[in-house]
Structures are given as C-alpha cells and as structure tokens.
Amino acid sequence: MIRALATVLALIAPAALAGDYGTALPAPISAETCPADPESWTKAALERSLTAQLGLPLVPHPADNPPTEAKIELGRKLFFDRRLSINRTMSCAMCHVPEQGFANWELATAIGVEGRSVKRNAPSVINVGFLTPLFHDGRDPALETQFVAPLVARNEMANPSIGHVVAELNRLPDYRRLFDAAFAAPASLDRIGQAFGAYQRSLTLGNSAFDRWYYGGDETALDAAAQRGFALFSGTAGCASCHVIETDHALFTDQAFHDTGYGRMREERRQNPPASHPVQVAPGVVHQVDFSRIRSVSAPREADLGRYEVTEDPADRWTFRTPGLRNLAVTAPYMHDGALTTLGDVLEFYNAGGAGHPGQDARIRPLGLSPDELADIQAFLMALTSEGLDCLVAEARSHPPDNF
C-alpha cells in the first residue's frame, strides 16, 4: 500500500512543482497492493463508514438511512452501471474514476453522453459524505438527492426523467435481488438515493502523513519541508481561514462560498478569447490553432456565475464552495473548471493575489511568498494524501462494470 502511494506521489510531484502542462499523467492507482479480501469488500466498506478515521470526524449518516452492507453493494452497482444513461454508454464512474482518485485526470471539465460538454470539473467523491451542500455551487443538500441532477441533465446522462430511471431499474432482473436485500422492496426514487448515499459515504479516508503527525503525534510522519509548509498555510498565507483545520479533525473546507476572483477572471476570458489556442496533437507536439477554427466545431462555452445560479442573489455572483484539500495529489486538475493543471499553478494564482477584482474576498491578496516557500506549502499539500486509496479501487472493481 505504502509503495503504491509513494509511486503515485513521485510521479505527480515533479510535474506539479515544475508547473509543466506537457508532463505525462501519473500511473493510475493500483488495487494490487490492497491487502483486503475482495470477497468481503462490503464488510470493510461498512466498517470504514462507521469508524472515525485519524484526522476525520465520524461520517454523518442520515437518521433515515443507516448504512448496511446490502445498501453499499447496491450503491456500488448503481455507480458503475452504464445502463443508467439514456443510451447505456455512461456511468457515474466514467467521470469519477477510481484509479484516478475518483476524479478524472484527463479532462478539465466533464463530458456527457455523445461527447456533450459540461462546464465544470468532476471533483473527487472521496470524503464526499462530509460535504453539505454538494456540487461546486451547492445546489443540492444531500447525497440521497444529488444523484438526480446528473441522471437527467441533457449534457450528462440525459435520461428524459428520473421516473424513467426508476422504471428501467425495476425492469432489470439483476437489480431485484439487490433491492430486496437492501430494502425488501423494489426500486424507487428514495431507495436509489439511499443506496447511492450509503456507497459514497463508504469512500472515506483519513490517515494521511499530516494526520499521523498533527493528530497522531508521530513526529517522523511529516518531513521538514511539509512542516514549514503547514506553518505558512496556517499562518502567513492565511489559507486555513477557509480551508479550516479543527483541533480534532480537518476537512480543510469551511463549506462556505467565496469569490476568489477566479470565476470572474475565467468569464472575462470566455468573452474575450485569444486569437489562437494551443492544441496538443501528440505527446510533446503542440500546435497553435486559430481560435475561430475551434469555435466553428465547438458548442458555445456557457457562462458560469457560480452560486448565483442557485440563489439568483447578485451577492453570490462568482462565488464557489471552498473545496476540501485531501488527496489533492491524485485529483488534478484543479478549480471549478479544471483549468489549472498543477498545484504549482494554483499556488501561483493565490500568491499573486488572485485575479485582483474589486469584489473578490479580501483574504485573497498578494502574498509575496518565495519559490522555496511555495514549494514548502506544496510539500504540505502533498502530505494530505491518505493511505488506503488502493483498497478503495479494489472495492470499486470487485465486480465487472455493468455496461450491457
């Protein structure tokens, strides 16, 4: 397990430090180093979702949806089943890829059925059980209802209605046993949501090197650079004012919405595109292509006003929920639109004071940190990668995907 994680970090870190957009992707997270028995994966998943892990609080389970092995097994099947899309080609796991930290390394923004464009990055669902509300703009309050939006969105899984999905599941014989085992009842909207919620809350991992050092008292768990980076993160740089660290746990998010200047900056660039755009046609081979040619074969890129699209309150324009920072090393690219490829790019953006728009959060200000100090903060962020990623992959791949 440790060896596999070290391989991932070693492959990612040089690219992140260099800010190199052309660097090859890291090796996928492998399940082969997981010591767990693949036949008893549901037991391990249930235990994990009911146990507080080092650095994390207990997962909050809704009173009306206590987790069970049967619900987790059903939720996993739903998560990987391509039959839940209109043309039976896409599953949730095609945007939230287990071997890529339940994110997607290849795409800045997600792609739906038939290659339809989605304007936002697909975030990792590891530790999603702690988030309230959900999505970059906070438009849904719970995992039990969150699944509806991607299933019916025309640019995602494109089902004509959620009732269509319920009826389809009740027609599929392989689901009858699983719904009976989990609920002693057939598929319904609420039961589908409860199964999705139970499975995703089992994707919970703490026990990073930082956790072992800060919460576990292991002075050897964090190297000197990461310790200096933590001091900067929680002190001079002020990152912890939004990426909160509590005395007994750290979700690294205040679960609130902020205007960092980034959203408005990206909208201005959308409205004023460059004359040409770099297009990589092969590894290391990049051509500058006239942007008008790209536009002629592309759907118009949508504006993204962030939280405003949920509340329609002008004060919420350009605000997005503070993301958690755990497992950043295996969940690139970054920001709500995935436009920043490396952690180095993200740190440079914030070190410069964001975009400098008048309305951005006052805490986003020029920091004046040196390259060495930025490297130390990055070393700290890399130390937020949990042990056990390989076992999440092993559990996810415990059965072939349902892509009939």
Automatic annotation (TrEMBL):
<feature type="signal peptide">
    <location>
        <begin position="1"/>
        <end position="18"/>
    </location>
</feature>
<dbReference type="GO" id="GO:0004130">
    <property type="term" value="F:cytochrome-c peroxidase activity"/>
</dbReference>
<feature type="binding site" description="covalent">
    <location>
        <position position="239"/>
    </location>
    <ligand>
        <name>heme c 2</name>
    </ligand>
</feature>
<dbReference type="InterPro" id="IPR009056">
    <property type="entry name" value="Cyt_c-like_dom"/>
</dbReference>
<keyword id="KW-0560">Oxidoreductase</keyword>
<dbReference type="GO" id="GO:0046872">
    <property type="term" value="F:metal ion binding"/>
</dbReference>
<feature type="binding site" description="covalent">
    <location>
        <position position="92"/>
    </location>
    <ligand>
        <name>heme c 1</name>
    </ligand>
</feature>
<protein>
    <submittedName>
        <fullName>C-type cytochrome</fullName>
    </submittedName>
</protein>
<keyword id="KW-0479">Metal-binding</keyword>
<feature type="binding site" description="covalent">
    <location>
        <position position="242"/>
    </location>
    <ligand>
        <name>heme c 2</name>
    </ligand>
</feature>
<keyword id="KW-0349">Heme</keyword>
<dbReference type="InterPro" id="IPR036909">
    <property type="entry name" value="Cyt_c-like_dom_sf"/>
</dbReference>
<feature type="binding site" description="covalent">
    <location>
        <position position="95"/>
    </location>
    <ligand>
        <name>heme c 1</name>
    </ligand>
</feature>
<keyword id="KW-0732">Signal</keyword>
<dbReference type="InterPro" id="IPR004852">
    <property type="entry name" value="Di-haem_cyt_c_peroxidsae"/>
</dbReference>
<dbReference type="GO" id="GO:0009055">
    <property type="term" value="F:electron transfer activity"/>
</dbReference>
<feature type="binding site" description="axial binding residue">
    <location>
        <position position="96"/>
    </location>
    <ligand>
        <name>heme c 1</name>
    </ligand>
</feature>
<keyword id="KW-0408">Iron</keyword>
<feature type="binding site" description="axial binding residue">
    <location>
        <position position="243"/>
    </location>
    <ligand>
        <name>heme c 2</name>
    </ligand>
</feature>
<dbReference type="GO" id="GO:0042597">
    <property type="term" value="C:periplasmic space"/>
</dbReference>
<keyword id="KW-0574">Periplasm</keyword>
<dbReference type="InterPro" id="IPR026259">
    <property type="entry name" value="MauG/Cytc_peroxidase"/>
</dbReference>
<feature type="domain" description="Cytochrome c">
    <location>
        <begin position="224"/>
        <end position="385"/>
    </location>
</feature>
<dbReference type="Pfam" id="PF03150">
    <property type="entry name" value="CCP_MauG"/>
</dbReference>
<dbReference type="InterPro" id="IPR051395">
    <property type="entry name" value="Cytochrome_c_Peroxidase/MauG"/>
</dbReference>
<dbReference type="GO" id="GO:0020037">
    <property type="term" value="F:heme binding"/>
</dbReference>
